[in-house]
Amino acid sequence: MYHYRDAKAGKFYLERHELHPGSPSETPPFLRFARKHGPSLDLWSGEGHLAAPMLESAGLHWPVEEREVLVPIKRRGERKATPVRGYKALVRPDTEQVMSVVTTSYSVAENEWVALALQQFCSRLGEQKPIIAATSFGRDAERTMFAGRVSGNEEEALCVIAYNTHGGEGAVCFQLVEVHKRQRTTFILDSAHASLSIAHVGRMQYRLMHASSPDRDETFIERYLSETKPLWHQLANTLWTPRHTSALIKKLWGSTPPLTRTDLSEQSSIGDSHRHPGYHLPDTMSQISDAANAYRAICCWIDNESEACKRGDFTKDRDERLALGAGHTYKQRAWRWIVDNT
């Protein structure tokens, strides 16, 4: 049976074992993962909520409490709880769980603010109730993920995934993803406008609301569509050949290693060479004649056939790995190479 430790190499080679039940699926990994921890709606049926009821349904309608960090310090033979300067604890009030300890310069991004910003971003193209998932996870439930639909039909959808962490480093990140139902694949394009990050400093509520304000002429979403829509059309009309397939595989995964090595006495197999994409993708892509479908095939391999694990990632849940970014770099590099070399 598949075990996550078998996938920690981070090469995105062919999965060693059969994939988990239900894969490939019309439901993208970020919704499959969210469904395990909170509410997740059907992307293809048009279901959706506003931010407030989705937060309540997910049990995330609580504000983060900032409390003093106290350390017992011995003075005159007695230990007294003494505040630690420069630090504060972030506490989830409904469970009294300490999510993290941060510096006093850290600014909290409340669940309500992130979800409302996501709602405003996703409503710009007409979606009235765009929020389709909300969940918290992590060792102390300090991490949150929200998902919203920007536009779509019964076959394709443009979504935004919002990631936030109550504590630690990083920022609130809004990531655009394109989902294809029939191909059961999520596309992550290499565009400067594919994501937006807002660091945990300053007035977080103001910055989130200002970035997503309906009064803005455009956001990263409009800029992304302006850049990528013509490129999709261009690639759909660009010839793709087996030579392109070989060159792209080499760019992403290096030269295809030999299956065997010859010793003086006998031939012996070399580790996992047989799982290298160079032995599998050329046949899969042999009938592809345009660059757009070539890109889709690479993404399909990563989502549905590869080990889907970053190097050093010990996350057990394959859906979680994909939902949180496993394979994004490969997909972005593939898009950039195809755009630049066809």
Topology:
Layout: H1 29-35, H2 51-58, E1 65-75, E2 78-92, E3 97-103, H3 111-122, E4 131-137, E5 143-152, E6 156-165, E7 171-180, E8 185-187, E9 195-199, H4 204-212, H5 220-236, H6 242-253, E10 260-262, E11 267-269, H7 281-284, H8 291-304, H9 318-323, H10 328-341
Antiparallel strand pairs: 1-2, 2-3, 4-5, 5-6, 6-7, 7-8, 7-9, 10-11
Helix pairs in contact: 3-4, 8-10
Characterise the protein shown here.
The chain is of the alpha+beta class and 342 residues long. Helix content is 30%, strand content 25%. It has ten helices and eleven strands. It has helices spanning 29-35, 51-58, 111-122, 204-212, 220-236, 242-253, 281-284, 291-304, 318-323, 328-341; strands at residues 65-75, 78-92, 97-103, 131-137, 143-152, 156-165, 171-180, 185-187, 195-199, 260-262, 267-269. Helix 3 (111-122) runs parallel beside helix 4 and helix 8 packs antiparallel against helix 10.
Jot down its keywords.
342 residues; 3 domains; six-stranded antiparallel β-sheet; 10 helices
A few lines on this structure:
This protein has 342 residues and is of the alpha+beta class. It is built from 10 helices and 11 strands.
Q: Poorly predicted ranges (pLDDT <50, ≥5 residues)?
A: none
| Number of DSSP-assigned strands | 11
How many structural domains in the coordinates?
3
Radius of gyration: 23 Å
| Mean pLDDT over the residues | 91
String of helices and strands:
HHEEEHEEEEEEHHHEEHHHH
In DSSP terms, counting alpha (H) and pi (I) runs of 4 or more, how many helices? 10
Task: Tell me the span between the first and last alpha carbons.
Answer: 41 Å
The largest pleated sheet is described as: 6 strands, antiparallel
How much helix is in the residues?
25-40%
Tell me the β content. 15-25%
Question: What is the molecular shape?
Answer: globular
Content-based structural category = alpha+beta
